[in-house]
């Protein structure tokens, strides 16, 4: 019961519920005011304009939000005008429908925010069929009032942002902390458990993608919030938390070990890994609790269990050495020590988040320069040329736009032929659930149908119990508020609430409520079937054939990240910014690859060609970026020796191998690769350096010098990590090149 109340509290304090309230206020006030003044007919187009332009109100910078809603308002006015004027002329109407559906849905090429504007435009086209205006003056008044409604919603949104200026940022930070906590706990399970490891790795992909999405939105929101007078204390606090979440995410990535090596070394000694696993779990749960505290404004949780768990993890290294004994214990002890170092850094960042949340005045200031911060923002290209580049059959969004246009024209023609009442409900279902991916369309179809049925049953029950119009109006508004609040979290529940809202709105106008419910359910079924069949049969876009572009970007980003790490090793002070930028781009590229893989898993089994090969490639990319992050993190956290000739030779060897994989996809050719024998010799030299240091240490122990100084420890750690990780990277890059060539030969050749 206590947990239920906590979840309810978090929901009512969330920015999602706040967004639902915004929509409710924007719709309710015009209704109430014009109804009281006796001009109820004027309220409907204003409310409709507000409703149509609400989707563009998403978290992000204020400038982009305002621009999105203004563009959305202009687009919905234009589309409504075109449909209303062409409605009496069927041939013109069909042409207008097809052209609008195609080009408006193609706006999604400009990013997620543009896709929401696109949805508003499509929604305006569908709802225009329900508007009964025929004269020129009536149409122009309708459109003008809808435009006023869009501006009214923008005003409400800005007022809410002034009253609650940090709501969206806090929600994004809270969501990010929660996701990272889940990610850390999942990594804890991977450390010791070999059972279901593949399924957990796939879950990793999903979490990484979600975290990267949150980080991108936070970059836009927080890094553009700086004003000429500087950041406020609260903005400084949010930025501190954000930067710590990025560091934690990188540390978790870098913490990924070669599980085959760990399984081999700790095969019968997993108990020595359990303290590290326990610490990861405790830190993950602590981050989740901090995510809740951030929204609840409650006192911070006790941190004693964190420090005691860290102490136990440190003690496990000594226990391992006492149990196994040197020199046999050295490799395992170095693995435990490296793991402990990561966890110690993780804990430092968690403490930094606690200090920022506790408003500690001595907490570190953010020293990121304006020109440096701007480089971390992902800029979207809004040139018309971007759309032109997608006007080709191999573009996923081009196929989706064409498919959507055909499906809508077919549905409308079907409605005319069979004289279906409210055909626009079928069209509405199609635009709401049809996505470029077949799997997502199918999933949303199920949720839409289930939600509609649930909503219909609830609505029927209420209609049978009462015939009160005031009750209908209140329930319509309340259900719509909750629908908007839940639409991103639980689409099935949102669909049920939207159905309830629509039924009561119609019941408020039309007394035949049960008839409305009946048509609503039937039309939803028809629309869902058309959407799924169209996605499967009309220019289907199976993810297995769309991976090429994503793989190319991942290879380029990983190669750039590798070379940035090489430069960082040579000059840590001057190359840190370039390294951080390359790391960001690599993480975003791998996130896109993970998202593509998730879409692949949703395609029909028969269309998941060479699934195991693609899974292997995605895993190799993920492991590659983790190994690079591990080297980069060690360099930034330790005083390292100068980069050796062998280090540079191996980096170049790995870079050339990645380029070879890239060439096979792009059908280009570059210079000859570095000879593999030279790379093998370089790796042997690095291993020999580690063995030399280990031998010196063994000799000192024999002489009775058992005390290990920090400099010698760091030298051993560096030699072990660099030699092993570079050898690992060579193997990973070789496997990735082979897998990429197999992908090209077995999949792209058949395309």
TrEMBL record:
Which membrane topology describes this protein?
Answer: Multi-pass membrane protein
Q: Which cell locations does it reside in?
A: Cell membrane
**Can you give the residue ranges of the Integral membrane bound transporter domain?**
407-533
Name the InterPro entries for this protein. Answer: Memb_transporter_dom, YccS_N
What keyword terms does UniProt attach to this protein? Cell membrane, Membrane, Transmembrane, Transmembrane helix
Chain ranges passing through the membrane: 32-54, 66-83, 89-107, 114-131, 137-164, 401-418, 448-464, 470-487, 494-511, 517-539
Sequence ranges assigned to domain Integral membrane protein YccS N-terminal in this UniProt record: 74-344
Name the major location.
membrane
The family line of this record is: Belongs to the YccS/YhfK family.
Protein name listed in UniProt: FUSC family membrane protein
Say which species the protein is native to.
Psychroflexus salinarum
């Amino acid at each position: 019961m206590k947990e239920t109340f906590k979840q309810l509290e978090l929901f009512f304090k969330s920015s999602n519920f706040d967004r639902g309230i915004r929509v409710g206020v924007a719709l309710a006030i015009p209704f109430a005011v014009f109804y009281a003044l006796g001009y109820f007919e004027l309220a409907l187009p204003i409310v409709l304009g507000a409703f149509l332009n609400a989707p563009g109100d998403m978290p992000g910078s204020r400038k982009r939000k305002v621009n999105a809603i203004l563009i959305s308002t202009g687009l919905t006015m234009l589309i409504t005008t075109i449909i209303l004027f062409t409605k009496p002329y069927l041939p013109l109407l069909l042409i207008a429908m097809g052209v609008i559906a195609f080009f408006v849905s193609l706006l999604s090429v400009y990013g997620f925010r543009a896709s929401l504007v696109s949805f508003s435009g499509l929604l305006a086209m569908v709802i225009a069929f329900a508007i009964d205006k025929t004269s020129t003056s009536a149409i122009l008044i309708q459109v003008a009032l809808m435009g006023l409604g869009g501006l009214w919603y923008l005003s409400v949104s800005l007022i809410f942002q002034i009253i609650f200026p940090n709501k969206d940022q806090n929600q994004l930070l809270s969501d990010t902390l929660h996701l990272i906590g889940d990610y850390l706990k999942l990594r804890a399970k991977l450390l010791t458990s070999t059972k279901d490891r593949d399924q957990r790795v796939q879950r990793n992909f999903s979490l990484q993608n979600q975290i990267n999405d949150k980080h991108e939105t936070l970059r836009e929101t927080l890094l553009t919030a700086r004003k000429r007078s500087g950041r406020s204390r609260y903005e400084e606090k949010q930025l501190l938390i954000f930067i710590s979440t990025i560091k934690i995410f990188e540390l978790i990535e870098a913490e990924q070990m070669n599980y085959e090596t760990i399984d081999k070394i700790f095969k019968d000694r997993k108990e020595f890994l359990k303290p590290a696993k326990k610490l990861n779990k405790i830190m993950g749960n602590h981050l989740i609790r901090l995510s809740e505290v951030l929204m609840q404004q409650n006192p911070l949780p006790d941190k004693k269990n964190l420090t005691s768990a860290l102490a136990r993890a440190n003690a496990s290294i000594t226990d391992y050495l006492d149990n196994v004994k040197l020199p046999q214990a050295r490799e395992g002890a170095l693995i435990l020590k490296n793991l402990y170092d990561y966890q110690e850094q993780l804990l430092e960042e968690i403490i930094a988040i606690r200090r920022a949340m506790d408003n500690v005045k001595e907490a570190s200031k953010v020293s990121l320069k304006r020109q440096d911060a701007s480089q971390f923002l992902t800029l979207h290209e809004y040139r018309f040329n971007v759309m032109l580049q997608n006007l080709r059959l191999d573009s996923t969004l081009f196929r989706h736009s064409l498919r959507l246009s055909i499906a809508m024209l077919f549905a409308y023609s079907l409605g005319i032929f069979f004289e279906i009442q409210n055909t626009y409900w079928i069209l509405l279902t199609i635009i709401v659930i049809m996505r470029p991916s077949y799997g997502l369309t199918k999933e949303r179809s199920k949720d839409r149908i289930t939600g509609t049925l649930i909503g219909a049953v609830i609505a029927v029950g209420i209609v049978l119990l009462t015939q009160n119009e005031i009750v209908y109006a209140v329930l319509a508004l309340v259900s719509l508020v909750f629908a908007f609040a839940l639409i991103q979290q639980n689409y099935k529940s949102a669909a049920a609430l939207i159905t309830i809202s629509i039924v009561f709105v119609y019941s408020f106008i039309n007394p035949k409520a049960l008839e409305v419910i009946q048509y609503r359910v039937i039309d939803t079924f028809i629309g869902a079937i058309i959407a799924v069949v169209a996605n499967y049969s009309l220019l289907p876009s199976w993810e297995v054939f769309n991976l090429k572009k994503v793989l190319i970007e991942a290879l380029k980003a990983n190669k750039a990240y590798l070379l940035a790490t090489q430069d960082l090793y040579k000059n840590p002070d001057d190359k840190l910014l370039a390294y951080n930028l390359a790391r960001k781009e690599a993480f975003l590229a791998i996130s896109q690859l993970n998202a593509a893989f998730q879409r692949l898993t949703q395609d029909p089994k028969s269309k998941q060609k060479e699934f195991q090969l693609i899974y292997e490639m995605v895993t190799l990319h993920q492991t590659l970026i983790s190994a690079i992050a591990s080297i980069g993190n060690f360099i930034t956290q330790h005083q390292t020796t100068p980069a050796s000739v062998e280090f540079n030779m191996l980096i170049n060897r790995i870079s050339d191998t990645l380029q070879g994989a890239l060439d096979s996809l792009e059908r280009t050719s570059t210079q000859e690769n570095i000879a593999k024998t030279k790379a093998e010799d370089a790796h042997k030299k690095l291993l020999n350096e580690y063995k030399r240091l280990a031998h010196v240490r063994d000799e000192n122990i024999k002489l009775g010098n058992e005390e290990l100084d920090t400099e010698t420890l760091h030298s051993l750690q560096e030699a072990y990590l660099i030699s092993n990780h570079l050898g690992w990277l060579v193997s990973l890059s070789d496997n990735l090149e082979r897998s990429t060539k197999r992908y090209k030969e077995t999949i792209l050749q058949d395309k």
